[in-house]
Every structure is written in C-alpha cells, then in structure tokens.
Task: structure prediction
Amino acid sequence: MKPAFLLGLALAVPLPGCAQEPSDASLGSALEAYQTGAYETAVEGYRSLARSGADLPLSARGWALSLAATGEYDEAIEALDEVERQGGDVIELSRVRGTVLRRVGRRAEAEARLRAAVDSTASDGELARIELAELLFDSGRRDEAIEIFDGFIDFYNGSNGLDAPHLSAVGRALTVLGTRDPDLFHDAVRAFEEAIEVDPGDPDAKVHLGALFLDKYDSPNAGQLIDAALARNPNHAAGLLAKARRAKFEGSSAAIELTEESLAANPALTEARAFLARLYLELEDPVSAETEARRALETDPSSLEAWTELAAIAHFRGDAPAFASARDEVLSVNPNHSTLYEALAEVAYRTHRYADAVQFAQQAIDIDPISWSAMATLGLNQLRLGQLDTGRETLETAFAGDPFNVWVKNTLDMLDELSVFEQTRTERFVFSMHPDEIGLLSAYASPLAEEAFAAMSARYRYEPPTPISVEIFDRHADFSVRTVGLAGIGALGVSFGSVLAMDSPGARTGGEFNWGSTLWHEISHAFTLGYTEHRVPRWLSEGLAVLDERHARPGWGSDVDPGFLAAFNEDRLPSLERFNYGFVRPQYPGQVQHSYFMASLLCQMIEETRGFDAILALLQAHKEGLETPEAVMRALGTDLESLDGELSDYIRTEYGSAIAALGEAEPDQPPAPGTFPAIMMDGARAAADGRTDEAIETFERAREAFPQYAGPDAPALLLARLYRETGQLDLAATRYREYAALNENHFDARVELADVEAELGNAAGLQSALEGAMWVNPYGPDLHTRLAGSYEETGDWGRSARERSALLALAPTDLAEAHYRLAYAHFRGGDPELARKSVLSALEIAPNYEEALDLLLEIRGRTGDDR
Amino acid sequence: MGFSALAGSRVRWTIRTATLVGVGLLASAPALVAQSAGPRTHVLVVSGLGGEPEYSELFRTQAMTFLDAARDRWGLDETETVWLAEDPTVAPDRIAEKGTREALQSQLASLATRAKPDDAILLLFIGHGGGTGDESKVNLPGPDVTGADVAGWLDAFPTQTIAIVNAASASGGFVGALKGDRRLVITATRTAGERWRTHFGTFFVDAFALDGADTDKDERISLLEAFLYAKAEVERYYALDGQIPTEHALLDDNGDGEGSMEPSATGPDGALASRFFLAAASATVAAQAAGDPELAALLEKKTRLEQEIAALRGRRDQMTADRYEAALENLLLDLAVTSRAIRDKEGPQ
Result:
C-alpha cells in the first residue's frame, strides 16, 4: 500500500467530471433525467441523441444505462447493438456492455468486453477496470482482482481533477482493499466524499458511501446519505435497496416494503431479490424466500446471492440434496465465495441454529481467513453456545481485523463485565450473576429453575442438555448486547438453547416485569429448542413458553388486553400462515405482544382440545423438518386455514363477552353507554365524588363485563382498594387475589394484598402475596424482613433462612445482625453447621454480640457453666 | 434460647458495660474510670431556618429526636447539651435560645470556658445550607454561618477533640474549612454545589434514635457507625425511590481536609470517628468491679479475649480458612462463657 495516498487525497482539487460531462443542453437534460430517476425521459433523450449520432459515445452509454437502471437489460444490449451497427465505436461502448452483461450473469462475455475497454484504453477504461476487478473478485480470482484494485491508489495519486464516477471507482476499490487494511476505509470515505463534492447531483456516490457506512455499522450517517440520494432520485433501485438494508440493520419492519420498492424501480435487480429472499427466510417463510431467489435467477442464472439464499433455504428445510446442489452452484462460479458460508451462518443464527452457525462461519473462515465479518459471526455464535473463552478469543481476532464492528466492540465490553460475574450451581443449572446480586437472586432463581426443569421434563417427556447456563444481567444494556450485539433491545430474556440470558429485576425500573416468569419462559425455550433440534418455529416456541408460564403460577403468562381483542375484532391479527411476521415484522405497535398472546392461546387451545400429546407431535414434526402447514396437518389432522378458524372460535368463546363489552370505539367520541369503558368512567366519577357504594356497585358491573382485564385500572384492583378503604377486608382480599392472578407485574397490589392478609390474620395469604411481590421487585429489605418474620411465626425455618439470606445479600448496614438472624433460622431449621458458620460471621464483626454468643453456645451444646 | 429473644430490642435501654473501655473518646484507654472522673462529651445542636413550615417542623423534630436519644438511650447528661433553634417558643424548656450566628458564637465561647482539656465537643447542624465555590454556609435566623466562621470560633478549643456534623444541603465546604488536628468533620454533601434538600440528617439522627446502627454490637454508636448507617440509608432511599442521588456524604478525621465517602476504622479517614461516642460507659460495673475481685478478673479476661480476637482477625490472611475459623470459634466460645458469667454477676438490669 502507498502511504502517500492520504496526502494525495488531501491535496487533490476536485474538478468537474469529464466522462459524462454534457456537451450540450440535450445531453445535459438526459443526464439530469437519469440522475433524478426520470428514466423514461432519460432513455428518450439519450436515444434521440444516439440515433442522430450526436454526443457519442456518451449518448449511447446513457441510453443503455438508463434502460439498465429499470432492469431492461436486454433492451440495453439491443441499444448498444443498434449504435454499433450504425458505426458506433465498439471499444467505447465495451465498458457499458460489459456492465450490463454482468448484470445478467453472462460473466465470460462481460469479462471480455471489460478487458477490451481496459486494454484498448477507451475513454472510460478506468471505469471498466473497476467493473472488471469486481467481476474477477466475485468470481474468486482474488489475487488478480486485488492487483487491479490496488492500482486505483496509483491511479488516484497520479491524476488531477477526477470526475465523480472515477472518484467513486477509487472509493469502490478502497472499500475492498479496506478488508485487508482497515485504515483504507477512511480513504474510501474521502474518495466518495470528493465524488459527492465534484458532482452533488450524482446519487451514485452517496449510495456507495451510505452502503460503506452501513457496512461499518454507522447507521445514522448511512441514513443521511441514502436519504439524500433518494431525495435526488427516488427511483434509485440500489439506493432503495440500501435503505432496506439499513431498515433491517435497525430492526425495522419496513425492510420488506423498502426492498419491494427497490424491485418496483428495478424488478431485475438480483441483489434486491436475494435480499428479499433473506428477509422471508428469516421470517421462517421458506416458500416466499424460494420464490424470490428463483426470480433472481431468472435475471442472472449465476447470481451468487440467489444461489446462496437457495442453499440457506435448503438448509433451513433440512433438504440436503437441494443444499448441496445450491452450494455447488455457488462454488462453481466462485470457489472462494466465503460469503456463502457466512450467509448460511447468519441465517442459521437468525433461525436459532447456533451450532450450525458456528460450523458455517468456520467454513467461511477456512476459505477466507481474513473474513472478519465471518470471524465475528463465529465468535458471537460461540458465545451463544456458551463457549465464552473461545468466543472471546475469536472476537478479539475479529476486532483486530475490523475495528469498526460495533457488535464485536460491544460484545467484548460486555464480556469484560461478565468476567466479574460469579457463578452458582444447582443440579441442572449454572447461574452467572453480578456479585452484588447473586446472593439475593440465586436464593429465588435456583429453586424456581429446578422446579421448572422438573415440571417441563415431565410435560415434554424430554430433557434438554444440561447444565443449562443462565446469565442474569444487572444492566439491561449488557443483556441487550449479549443478545443482539447492540443496546436497546426490548426483550427481557433470550434462549440460545441451553444458554439463557435475561435482565435481572434491577436491570429495569422496579416493577416493570416479572423476572420469575421470564426465567420460566426462557427455560421453556430450552426445552422446545432442544426437543426440535432448534427447528421449532418462533410462534410455537413463544406460544408454548407463555403457556408454560401460565401453568407455573397464577397470573404468570401474558394477559389479554383490550388492544388484542380490538385487533382480533378488526381482523388485524396475522393469519397462522404468516404468524411469524407478527413477531419479527410487526405491522402496528403492540403486535409483537399480541402475537405472543395469540400464540399462547393457540397452544392452549391445542392442549385443551387435543391434549399435550398433540403439542408433542407438532414439535416432533418440526424436528423432522416439516414446515408449519405440513406439521400441523400431520400432528393435528387439519390445515392451517381450519386451525385459524378454530382459533377464532376459541377466542370468541373465551373473550366474546369482553369483546362485546368493549364495544366499537369511535375516534373522538365518548364510549357508548353500557360498554365497559363507559361503566368504568361512571365508576371513576362516583369514586372521585366520594360515592363509594355507587362506585363499588359500578366497578362490580365492569368486572363482570370484562373479568379478564388486568390493566392498572382494572376493576378488580379498584374494587379491592375501595373494599379495603371501607373496612370490608374479606372482599378486599378476594379482589386483590383475583387481580394478582391476572397481572403478574403489579408489585403494589401484592404488597397491599399482604397488608390485608395480615389484618385478616392469614399468614399463608401474606406469605403468598409477598412471594409474588419478590418476583417483581426483590430489593426491598422491609419485605424480606416481613416475610422472614411470617415464616418464623409459622415455623417455616427453611423459607425463613432463605429470606434471611436475601436480607444478608442486600448488604444491610447491620451485617452482624443479618448473619445472626440467618444463623438462628438455620439452627431452628435443623442445620447447626450452617448456623455455626453464620453465627461466627456475626461474631467476627461484633464479638460482643450477646445474643450471637449465646447462640454459639447453644449450637455447641454448652451452657456457659462449663468455663 | 427461644425465639422471643429476637422479638425485643437488641439495644439495652440501660447502659451497661459491654466493654469497659469507651469513656468518651478514650475507647482504647484503660477503663474502670467513672464518668465523673473522666472526659465528657458536650453536644451543641443548631437547627436552622426551615423556610417553610414543613421544614421547620422537620428540623425541630430531628433536633429533638437526637437530643432525646442522647439523653434517654445513650446516657448523656442533659446539662451537657445545648440546643439553638429557629423558634425557641416551640420547646422553651429544651431550647436554649434562638439559633442566630451570634448565639452560636456565644455558646461556643461559653462552652470553651467549661470544657476540660480532654473533653469532646459535638456540634450538629440541621437545616438548609447554601454556598458558592468551596464555601458552605448554614441558613440561620439573621446572618448565615459559614465554615470559616465556625473554624475561627473553634480556636477557643485548643486541646479538645471536636466533631462537626453538618447535615444541611450544600454542606461539603465545611470539610476543607474546618480541617485540623483532633477534628472530625461530617457533611451531608461532598460539595457546596449539592443544593437539593438532604436526607442525611434524618438517618444520622435515626442512627442514635433507632436500632440498627450498632454494627459491632458494643451497645454504643460511634460517629463512624452513625455516618455509615446514615450513608447506607440515604443510598437505599434514593435507590428505592428510583432517583439519582443528589447528596454524597463525606467524613474527614485525619486533618487533611479531604473527606472520604467510604471511611473505615482502619483509615485513612474513620479511625477517630470510630472512637467518638456520645456518652461515656456506665460507671455501674466499674463501681461493682471495684469491690468484686471475681468480677474484675472476668472483665479483665473479657478484655483480653477481645484483644486476642482482634489480633486473630488481623492475621486472617496468613491462615487457612479452617484454622482461622477454628481459632475464632474457640476464642468466641470462651468469650461467650465469660460474658455470660459477667452478666450473672451483674444481675438483672
């Protein structure tokens, strides 16, 4: 590499471009139309000039490229043929012909044409050279290609006043070279920036630079450039595709729509077809994916992207012959196409097959040892398999090669945080948590996880590989990075199979979520992923996980909300055929949550109507590689459409009266009299006016109308509080319990219930309420003290010891007392050895602690008279 | 031992002699000295302007609670306490006079004439504060009082150990202004820039008025224990409330004018505070021991065992865990037996 390059770039004075510099107003108009996406006008303008022999070869090139911009490749070639028949300079048209031939997969002809332009020093020879280098690179002739790319550094340094297309060519060359020397990415950026400065009206350089930024994980800058290009040319197919890629990067559901816009601009853009296939495949919709991939092949039968997607689809389906065939197609074009395996790894990751992802990423690296993105994919998936040390090592290598990779950077930072975590083990689990939290949380998480394992292994008649690793992050950002490599994920937990990660209750504002049900949910995924060898579709895995939560504790598992019922009533819920779309590409706010709930209802319905064996049969069918329609047919004896109908009937049966009570909401109109919202408003007015009896009567009517409503303004909760205020404690307790069985997250309601239970003298009720509260916010020492005291009163010294341990883990100011009380609970619970250790801890801090000294004597069976 | 032992208060309302050392500051000095013959702790509480009735009431309550606890729980002679307040009429039998700057200066001058060379002084400010740069001041009726003002007046105490606790907002500047030998400065905030109302004062008072701060179970509250208790409770308050803490308490007692947020008995800040108590130990046992050789021997043995335990703890890192635990248990069993014997000798309290 030439170190002088940077200096050259810095000193270069951009001058107006020359290759497509319009020589008169007509050519200028055509160029303007081309750059603004008025391709028909551009075609007309260029064609008119070319046919009249004016401004050749620029007019002929423009004519062909304008046709190619909308995918009319055959017409573009015919245009070039026409000009050549009329005496046009074949060499001067070779580059454009080669470019168009490349688009339709006529690689050898394309190469010949491009070489002709390069060797004969056509006026656009350098532009031919970059096309040739890209073609060679794409065909696996990397050394040859790299030599050409490298030549662009000399080309730049030896030139003055390069136009925008040539500066872009330099940028394209440096983008490839940057893989070997990351510093060159900076130079690529500068080359593209100069191209933009030379011709601000040319959207191509902006799209190239935007794509480079996106490739280097800088989505905001990418977005600005791509949007600026599309503002100039809203029909820029590559720009629209870049925008779609950015949408995918951002996790936006607009990716499919934008890709379709790109294809509307150029239906023959094979990269867009292949990208759309990828999007469908990640939605676990291989049928649509294959359709798009094959359409891409209609344009370019040698399209590496399309064959790669077909290989991924075949792998997803478990179709080994089809996979081998597609893979061979790719490798026959480019034996060094590591991107094939990288793409396979990416799809494997997206479809939860992490071991496959590791295997494919390794194959990519075997082909191309400096494929840093494959290295990153390998490392990230090694982590997902729980191979923390190996994964870190791989990621450090990847980061050294590509220091721009924000996923890798974030993940390495996260691993630093994880390295201070402490571990605790149970029979089938290994928990990793921050030292400040492990003492507190493991006291609850460990028994719950074992309980979940026992319950699910009986239910599924299967045991996933153990130990199951559970990482509980005290910072949501770290959990997010552990999951997707970036901060900001909305999820609470994730399962990679037998490796689980989740937020600790302290990672979110207290009371936001139930960490017990979250843990249960993720353990369920470990079962369903393991059962199906990671072939369970998203909807089924999520539906079962929520259903399993519901079986675990009253109130756990998603609750119905009016928005879901409205979506159902308005037919906005996805059909079962497109069920996964609701999870991955939601069409309206809240659809993800609705999808979880709907999936859980479907699983619940199947279990209720056909038994859990039907669920197991469904899982077995997926394990064997069947797709959802076939799996449903085999396991349930019905087709998706009929099952859809069954589910609708089930929802109507379960929630029909609630749907009716909710009525039809009219925008800007008060709710209709007699509907649930109207009754609630009446009740609220009565309560505000102090008409308590009337408020109670009204809220009771609302409760009868929509008894499942679990929102924070649910009638059950409002009634509980009103009954408590009026001293009707039995009724208050009943309504509080009812509400607690609807809403798993409401901390205050559980504490209020505990208060009422205490007033009623119901120790078991108090304990149950506070146990529930701990799954929402376990950080309050007062509740632990209260719960410990209650267990001590009822002689449950085991649970008392757990609560005393929790209090100790909360690092109280009075550590000696905390140790002592724990020692006492252990002693009374029949564990003198643990009691001895705890009391020694107390006395080590406070040697004169009289009660502790007495307890030590008692543990040792001494009276004090034996001195 | 029944569970009922846990139900009551751990803190004895009658001061006994869990340790015989601990007369005022002389925690490490020889014991068996009646309070009347030894150093005393003088307490001067200043509750400043509330600005609003809610705060006036809060500051009055805090001061009153602290003084009640000092007298009732910790045996401080009421004649050794002085309370200056915003409005003396709210408790005329307790409040010495209106808490102005001049009154404070005058009270300190008076105290300087009464205090013996080995006595200790605790000056507690409760209220609102303010300040600019490094200077903190407490809002009093009339002119405010600054750290520099107080520092000047404390020159009248050339030999006494003095603890200044400023629980007001924006109090951090007192640390630098009042640094010195035999000086212990506690502030609710780390700078004069932390201006939001503080909660440190409430919890500092709680340390003396409620159970929970006596972490070494010696039945006394050192200023270090009170500081750590209040600090922890402040942190817990903000955490439970989901707020970002707007106060960060400091303690400086090594004279360098740099407060510590994590002081400890082993320093660099905290050693002096760990030996500063509100009140002397009771003279009861000392008097009993004087006429009871057997009790005196038990007390002597107890002191020796405590010293051996402390020495063992110091060697912990040089021992295996099992050996350390066994040695500790042996000493503690001996201590338990000895303590029980002392209690038997004392009779019911």
In short: The longest strand of chain B covers residues 41-47. Confidence is low (pLDDT under 50) at residues 1-37 of chain B. Chain B has two domains: 37-275, 284-346.
